[in-house]
Fold this sequence. Notes:
Blueprint: H1 3-19, E1 35-41, H2 47-62, E2 68-76, E3 79-86, H3 92-106, E4 118-120, E5 130-133, H4 151-157, E6 164-169, E7 175-181, H5 183-188, H6 193-202, E8 206-210, E9 216-220, H7 226-230, E10 233-235, E11 238-239, H8 240-243, E12 244-250, E13 256-259, E14 262-263, E15 267-271, H9 277-289, E16 295-299, H10 300-330, H11 333-356, H12 363-386, H13 388-406, H14 414-441, H15 458-470, H16 472-490, E17 505-511, H17 518-524, H18 526-532, E18 538-546, E19 549-556, H19 562-573, E20 579-582, E21 590-596, H20 600-618, E22 623-626, E23 630-638, H21 640-646, H22 650-661, E24 665-669, E25 677-683, E26 698-700, E27 704-706, H23 707-710, E28 711-719, E29 722-725, E30 728-736, H24 742-755, E31 763-766, H25 768-799, H26 803-825, H27 832-853, H28 863-888, H29 899-922
Parallel strand pairs: 7-25
Antiparallel strand pairs: 1-3, 1-4, 2-3, 2-29, 5-15, 5-16, 6-15, 7-12, 8-9, 10-11, 13-14, 13-18, 17-19, 17-20, 18-19, 21-30, 21-31, 22-30, 23-28, 24-25, 26-27, 29-30
Helix pairs in contact: 1-11, 2-3, 9-10, 10-11, 10-12, 10-28, 11-12, 11-14, 12-13, 12-14, 12-27, 12-28, 13-14, 13-25, 13-27, 15-28, 16-26, 25-26, 25-27, 26-27, 26-29, 27-28, 27-29, 28-29
Amino acid sequence: MGNRNIFLLLIFCLLICHFLKDLQFSYYPDSSKKVISVKIEMEGAGPEEIENLLCNPLEEEILMMPGISHFYSRSGWEETEITLFLDELSDLNNCYLDLRAIIERKSAFFPPSAGKAVIRKSSSLNSPVFIFVPRLMSDKKNMTPTESWTEERIRSELKGISGISQIHLSSSSGQDINIEFEEDMLSSIQQNALDLAGIIHQHNSISALSLDDSSELVLDQRLKSISDFETLALSPALELSETADINIESSAVKSLSRLNGRRQSISWIYESGDANTIDLCRKLRTAAEKIPGSLILYDRGELIEEALKELFQILCLSLTAVILITLLILKNFKAALPVCLNIPFSIGGTVAIFNMLSWEINILVLSSLALCSGMIIDCGIIVLEQGFEKSKRALWSSLVSTLIALTPFLFASPGLKFLCTPLIRALCICLTLSVLFIVLTMKQYNGRSLQGELSVRRQQINRIAGSYTKYKKYAVLVLILITIPSLLLMKNLNYSQDFKLINDSIRFSVEFPAGSSKEWIEIQLMDMEESLGEINAAEYYSSEYKDEKAGFHIKLSDISMKDELEESIKTQMMSLPGFLYFDDRPAGDSYHIRILAHMRPLLYSETEKLAQFFQRTMNEQNLTLHYKKQQPLLCVQTDNNICMATGISPLITARSLGKKLSPPVLGKWVPGDGIIYDIRIFNKEANELETSEIGKLKIEGKGSYALEDLAVLSNREDYGPIEHFNSQRSTSFSFSTEGLGGKQIHKTINRALNDYNLPEGVRVIHGEEYRIRRNNIRELIKLLTASILLLFILLIFIFESPFLPLCLMGQIILCHIFTLGFLRLLKVNLSVPVFFALILNTGLSINNGLIVFSRFRKKRPSLEEALNSLLQCRSTIVTAALTTLTGFIPFLGAGESSAELLKALSLTVGSAVIISILLLVGSLFIFKPDKSS
């Protein structure tokens, strides 16, 4: 190796070391992180009003946005939330800016009571990445009690940590400024509560003025303290403190939570779509540990780190085994050194390039590098055995063939391209670097002498050729007998889109009927809480109770008890009125049916009928209805004639009721201490009313009238929040499909829907997940076929005759058939990494063919010539196969976190290596013997 090559190699190594610092890792390409949600509040509005005034105008524009896969919306009381799911190749930041522009344009036409839109690069549908208790309950006097923690205080503790989308703190209340006025005093100066709110707003603002020198003058007129409120002048002779009592009070808590059965505040933290989960959780972990007495309940980043750590350990063990077996077989440390050093150089260089270009290094990238290790060793051994000059054609052909095999993936659908891109990048970069290393370090190798060592006597070749001729018919029969069962097994292959992160927790939620208070739900689930406390396999458990919903999180000390515990929870929930749903259920383990219709009574009645129909048809008990709720209401129906006679319009009635029943939020106070206060202004004499007393409320018009004299009051149940799917009203239900085939369920659902008569105006959408998986596997097969065809064209170009390319293509096709049949026999699911392993199997088969037949250009070799060439190259082929198989043996012992992926890779490549060699030997049956011999 010349000095120039040594210098270049050192430069490359230094650059690699430099860019290996501060690596960013992730678990799996997650398209679900490409989500944007927007939430808008509107005081005093019901679901239909929210839908018409806020939701529908925005959805009309969102339908025209590029890069949107689908979107949901939920219009409830006083708020709407729209959740956009982006295509895999869409840019999250660009879509965020497009949505913000739409909202700014449309908000000009929103009613004045509509609040400012809150846009997040995430969704409330996402799971939290970090759950912790900010401080445990304590009897010590010097420790702040848990109730003193607020979301604002949590935010201040986590200030400076980027990537946080939402922070939710249970059992905590906000802060209100309650202004209780005396109505007589305000009436004396001809003012009311709304006038009072306007005065406070005028004296509680911050603005800026542009000066001539392009600088800005900030006018901070905010009220800084309670005394500032008290000294506000309502008139020249009257201050606010003279007519109202002003106090800071805690607002009602939105949720109740427990830890191991005891009341406890718990904080849930959600990540934004552009955050790195591992990096975010590390920072959150550090911040949480600085809070005395805090307890971390769930850390998704730590789970991912453990999975990646396990994968790194297996990779290191695999590479060590490959290097040792290479040294053992070659028995020449000096010759084997460059072959072994090629592995860390190529893999380290690939990781460094990924880091330099800010590409995420995930489990697919690492698995791709594991696949490359065998091909790197193969290339080095070929050069050692045959010399650089003789093998450089095969070396470059191998690299070009691999790159050509990956070309069809450039034209894949966005979903597959999103998953395949990390694999393609890692594979191409790693193999290119390995060839570069060989060119720099092994150019001087002339190969081992084959004279006497690998030559075979003519008589031995003739004897082996005679055996091939004699048993040719039996070989064909054996091939047919193996091929037919393999093809039959391939028909039932399952496809897996992603790999579930092994979690030592159980998270489930229970939805209750509309109107169920958090206090009532807490009582209903008290027995379940007590039973959770008796579970020996649980380290701890937490619960949160909201209106109409409860959520549970159980941390297990023994993960093997997870399935048994889930069944126990299902059994307990059968006697309760709520719907049970396990939050961490994989997407492939549930089947969703969505119903679309415009008329709400028809939509909800058909949803209930369909759900009951499928329960009977499929004998499915664990069926979950989503958002099918009826809200108990007190209906106030006014009469137009009475309104005209009294001068009291429905709007005046609504405002009067709003003031007297629940003091509305008429403003915000942000004094600068990080806490946002709601300003509530209400009459000091107003008392909380029972439902029976509402009819006696006085409404002022031309005179004073009781509400029951102006309107008819009745109790009824109305429908609650309105769900949209792609701007159409919808509901949905789902049921578990664990252990059942997607194809079988899809056919059963189709047959059931054909027997069910849907009324006009109702449409059913189902099987989206199944169709995506089915289309993906079909597309992957097409891409694999296209790769094989492109490689066939390349082989035609290399050999300049059709016989050897056809022979190698036959070997490749049979190798894939036998490998897929073997995987089905072992119940291994197909996945993107498995298909990439199949492509690499294609490369390995072609490499063996190029090694054996590279000198037969424009010529069809005889059986004797092919045998002689195969026997001469047997050492190279066997050594490469042994090193590849050795590298994948540690993968079979992978732990639970990465077992599914690594075992699938090892079985795919390992079986193909053995099958390809057997097929190469067996392919000699199609060669004709030399008649001259």
